[in-house]
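Data deposition worksheet. Section B asks for the primary sequence of the deposited chain exactly as it was used as input, without tags or linkers unless they were present during the calculation. Section C holds the resulting structure in token form. Section D is free text for depositor observations; keep each observation to a single sentence. Incomplete worksheets are returned to the depositor.
Section A, Depositor: J.P.
Section B:
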Amino acid sequence: MKKINFTQVEIYTGVAKKTCFVQDIREAFADAIYSQSVGLKAHALAFKIYNSSGEVEYSDEEVKIIKQFAEQWCSPSLIDAINKMTE
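Section C:
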């Protein structure tokens, strides 16, 4: 289990990781999972992320789906942000 806050994600602006900006990615990340993934687990996860507010606890299986999705579909800066949140 891991608590993740999709409303305040720190995304680095460069590979040196000297500066970052904070962004609410709930809708965009949930939309991406909803439209690019398959299965009921992905469906439920997309709505859980979209409807979240602040820190929410995610199961190990949900965290695995989040990380796998990010690694396959997201920019390197967002992959790093997701990895940091799920450590």
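Section D:
The first strand starts at residue 2 and ends at 5.
The CA atoms of residues 7 and 53 lie 7 Å apart.
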